[in-house]
Amino acid sequence: MGLSFLMFLREAIVSNSEVFANSEINIPVPFFYNMPMKPLSTFRKFFNVTDCLEWYMYTFNNETATQEDRDFFGFNEGLPMKNPKSGGMLKGGKNLLEMPCKEIKRSVPFFKLYDLNEPTMNQ
């Protein structure tokens, strides 16, 4: 029975593949970061994940970006580790897949606004 269902499903997909091949697929939320690797560390044979640190730096063009643009993009610095303060597209729990990272005491991924006056994140 199960094998028959799989064969039927395969035929349905193959026969409709041309319909989907040239179609545009839209994801309702922005997806612009990597897949979280820490959960994959349970498959030690295939993945060697040493920590869960994942962060992204972003900036705005001060000449063209309005406050409305900045509010729409949002913020999420991953603090506190559980239920971090966030907003806009980077709103945790709503628009963003995130998880607590005990090694750095933050929720990851987190996002840091680039400031020329600050040292880099790695310093």
Strand content: 5-15%
Q: Output mean pLDDT.
A: 76
User: H/E series, N to C?
Assistant: HEHEEEEE
The biggest beta sheet is recorded as: 2 strands, parallel
State the total count of DSSP E strands.
6
Measured distance between first and last alpha carbons: 60 Å
Return Rg in Å. 20 Å
Please give the share of residues in helix.
10-25%
Quick one: overall form? extended
> pLDDT under 50 segments (min length 5)?
none
Q: Which structural category fits the helices and strands?
A: alpha+beta
Helix count equals: 2
Can I get a quick summary?
This protein is of the alpha+beta class and 123 residues long.
Task: Provide structural commentary.
This protein has 123 residues and is α+β, with helices and mostly antiparallel strands. It has a domain at 32-113. Helix content is 22%, strand content 15%. The chain contains 2 helices and 6 strands; from the N terminus they run H-E-H-E-E-E-E-E. The protein has helices at 2-21, 67-73, and strands at residues 55-58, 75-76, 86-87, 99-101, 106-108, 110-113. Strand 4 (99-101) and strand 5 form a beta hairpin. It is extended and about 65 Å long.
